[in-house]
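Bug #77: duplicate submission created two jobs. Keeping one. Sequence:
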Amino acid sequence: SSGINAEYGVSGNNDPTVNEDLLISLFQKLYGSADNEAIPRMNNFTDFPQYFLQQDFMRAIGSIKDQAGMTTRKIVNFLSTQLHYNDNQSNEYDDSYLIV
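Kept job's structure:
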């Protein structure tokens, strides 16, 4: 996640809502379905660097906390949506590392 944070200048920003909005928006644009960006596309294991970047996004988003050190409702909802729609039964590879 430090790569994502450094790449987008997230680590120096003390406003968690800016960080969460930016990272969630980028994640949805890169990995959301064409019909609804909030719903993830099926994982594509033909491009491993992209898969690892997707993992970094999830770690970076999950690590954002508010001033009280708590995960925000927006992030909880985002992660819940990712878990709910992460149906990759037709993939030959196990993607449990992405959703951990």
